[in-house]
Amino acid sequence: MAIILICIIYKDMFSLHPQLAQDTFYVGDFPLSTCRLMNDMQFPWLILIPRVPGVTELYELSQADQEQFLRESSWLSSQLARVFRADKMNVAALGNMVPQLHFHHVVRYQNDVAWPKPVWGTPAVPYSNDVLAHMRQTLMLALRGQGDMPFDWRMD
């Protein structure tokens, strides 16, 4: 109950870094975090951003928010791995270009264009309208909140 109340307060003060807004599509919200789809159709790639203003590092979150953020990240990773049949899930927080705390969740396959290297440095291929529509449908099925992990689906 306290986590939800705190998130409502945070949400009013939270603003997304302009680079994340430019490079991603809004998907929906977990209790603490907002979830966005990277505009690169080569990889199923979601970004999780806690809606807490001014946070650049995981340790800057309260203990309760750290636990919630990691629960959301783990749940998101497991759903993506299952639905997309990942060979490997890459979960990373860099922050060199975008200091706002965010975790990348990238589905990887042994035959993808960047394997075995990181996806960073591979030129992005923006979604076409048809491929984006298909991805939205797939994500809608993958990210339906289950059990104790509610997800507010609002993909714009």
From TrEMBL:
Gene3D superfamilies named in the record: HIT-like (3.30.428.10)
Pfam families hit by this protein: HIT
Coiled coil stretches, renumbered: none
Record domain HIT: where: 46-115
GO molecular function: catalytic activity
Residues in the signal sequence: none
Membrane-crossing residue ranges in chain numbering: none
PROSITE patterns for this protein: HIT_2
Annotated protein name in UniProt: HIT domain-containing protein
